[in-house]
Structure prediction request, 446 residues.
Amino acid sequence: MKKMLGLALASVMLVQLAACSSGTPSAEGGAKTEGAQASGASANKQVNLRYSWWGSDDRNKAILAAIDAYQKMNPNVKIEGEYGAFASYYQKLLAQLTGGTAPDIVSVDYKWVQDLIANGKPFVDMNTMKDKIDMSGIDMKFAAAQAGDGKYLLGLPIGVNAIGLLYNKKLLTDAGIQMNNEWDWDTLLEAGTKLHQADKNKYLMFLNNDHYIYLLKSQLKQKTGNNIVNDDFTLGFKKEDLVEVFTYFKKMLDNGVIPPFTEAVQYESVYADQIPNWLNGNYGIFPTSASKIPSIALASKFDIDVARYPIYKNPKNPGIITSPSMIITINSKSANIDESAKFINWLMNSKEAALILKDTNGVPAVAPMAKLLQEQKLIDSNIARMVEEALPFSGTPENSSSLNPEIDTILKDYVHRVGYGKLTPEQAADGLIQDVGSKLKELNKK
Prediction:
C-alpha cells in the first residue's frame, strides 16, 4: 500500500477534495478560509480569545507561529496561547470548566471525550458549526466515532494518529527477516524466535508499559470484536480469550521475541529514543504511534521503516488503534463563539496554516491539507505511511470504561505478574477478571 497519502485519505475518509481545496464553501455550507479576515462591523471590534493545547516543543512553536499569522491578517483579534504539559492538562481543564475560566478554544484528547460528554457537554456541539467551519475535508464518521456520542459532536480532529511498527531495516535484513504489511501475530512470533536463536543478544521487539496494554487490548478486540469493557459495564471477553493473550505474551518472553522483563522494566515508561538497546541495534521493532516517529528517527543512527500493526487472520475486528492527535473545540460559555469558529476554520482549512503547522499534529485531518503537505514533502514519509496503512484497519473506538486509567492500572499489574513469572496465564486471567469486575461495579454506581 504505497499510495500517496492524499489518495489514501481520499478513498478511506470518503471526502470530496474538490469541494474544499480552494477554501470556498462546501455543499454543506462551510465558511471561506483563504485570508480569514473579518468583514463589516466585526472587523473593527476588538476580540480577545484564549486557546489551550499541549504537546512537543515543535508543536508549541508551530501553533504560536500560526496564531501570529492569523493575528496579522485579523488585527482586531488577539489570541492568548495557553500551552501546558499533557500530564497535568486534563486536571487543569476540569478545574477551569468547574470555575468558569476555561479558554475559548480548547484542545481535548480523545480519551477524555466520553467523560466530558457524561459530565455536562461543556463544549459547543460542532454539528451546529457547519456554516462557520468547512468540514468537507474531514472524515465525519471518524470524527463522530472519536469525538461524539451519535448526536452530539464535542470537537473536530485536528490531526490523525495511528499505531504501527517502527523497525531497524538493517537488523531485520541481516537476519533474513522480510518485514511487510501483512504480518499476523504468528508471523511475529516466528520471526522473533528466529532472530533470537541466531543471536542471543538480539530481540525482535521491545514493549513499554503502554504497548503491553495496546497488545492486550488489540488482540482481545481482534478475537472478540469487542472493547475490553462493554457499554453496559460487562467484560467484552471470555476467560479463554484472556488466557490465550497472556499465553502469547509468555511465549514472546520464553522464545526471546521480547527481552526479559527484568531488563525491559527499566525502560517501560520511555520511548525508543531513550532505550540503549534500540539505539545500539539490539532491538529490531518498536511499536509506536506515528507522532512519536520524528524524535526516534532523529536519535537512531540506522535506517528505519514502518509496517502495519499485526492482525490475526480473519479477525472479528481489526483492532488497530487510530485516533485524533488532538481534538479542537469551543467552550460553550465563550463570549466569542463565532470568532473562535473563524479561527478554527482557518487553522484547519487554510494552506497558510497547514504550511506553518506541517506534521506537528500528525497527519492533518483535513484531506486536502494532508495531500498538500505530502506533495511538498513536509510530512515525514514514515508518519504518513504508518497512518495510511492503519486507517483501513481501524478498530472501533474505545469507550470511556475501556479507557479508564484505573482499569489500565489493573491490566498493567497483571502483565507485570506474568512477565515476572509470578502468575501463570490462567491465574492472571482469573485475577484480572475479578479485579476488573470489582472496579466496574464501582464505576457503574457513579
